[in-house]
Amino acid sequence: MASSNTSKTAPKKSDSATKRAKQGAVRHERNVSVATSLKTMEKKVLKALGGEADELKKVFEQLSSMLDKAVKKGVLHKNKAARKKSLFNARVTPGAAAPVKLVKKVKAARGESAKEKSRARAKIKSKSKK
After folding, report:
1. If pLDDT is split at 50, 70 and 90, which confidence band does 123 have?
2. In 3-state terms, the chain is what percent helix, strand and coil (to 5)?
3. Phi/psi at 70 (nearest 5 deg)?
4. What residue ranges define each of the domains in the chain, with the CATH number in brackets?
5. What DSSP designation does 51 have?
6. pTM
7. What does 67-115 look like in DSSP terms, one character per residue?
8. Alpha-carbon separation of residue 47 from 41, 42, 63, 70, 129 (angstroms)
C-alpha cells in the first residue's frame, strides 16, 4: 500500500515571483486610484460647462495634465488620452461647431433593425452573384 504522506504540495514560489506579485498589487492599487481621480475630474469639467469660463479653463487644464501624467505612468494609452483631451477641448472651446457626445456607442440588440440589415445584405449578395 502507498504511504499516506505522499500528497502533492504546491512548489514554493521563487523570490522573484513573490516580488513581481507584490509589484503588481501596488501598480493595480495606483492604477485604480489614478483612474478614479480621472473620472472625478471629467465630471468636474462637465459640471463647469455651465459656469464661468475662467473656472472651466482651469479645470480643463487640470484634467489635461492628469491625463498626461496617467499616460506617463502607464495607466492610459496615449491615444486614449489624446482622444479624451480632444473631445473635452471641443466641448470647452467656445464657438465649437457642434456639441460632442461623450458616451460610448452601444451595439443594437438583436431586434428588427438587425434582421432588416441582414436581409439587405443577403439581397446585395444575391444580386452580385447574378
Report:
1. confident
2. 70, 0, 30
3. -65, -35
4. 22-96 (1.20.58.110)
5. S
6. 0.61
7. HHHHHHHTSS-HHHHHHHHHHHHHHHSTT-SSPPP-S---PPPSSHHHH
8. 10, 9, 13, 22, 55
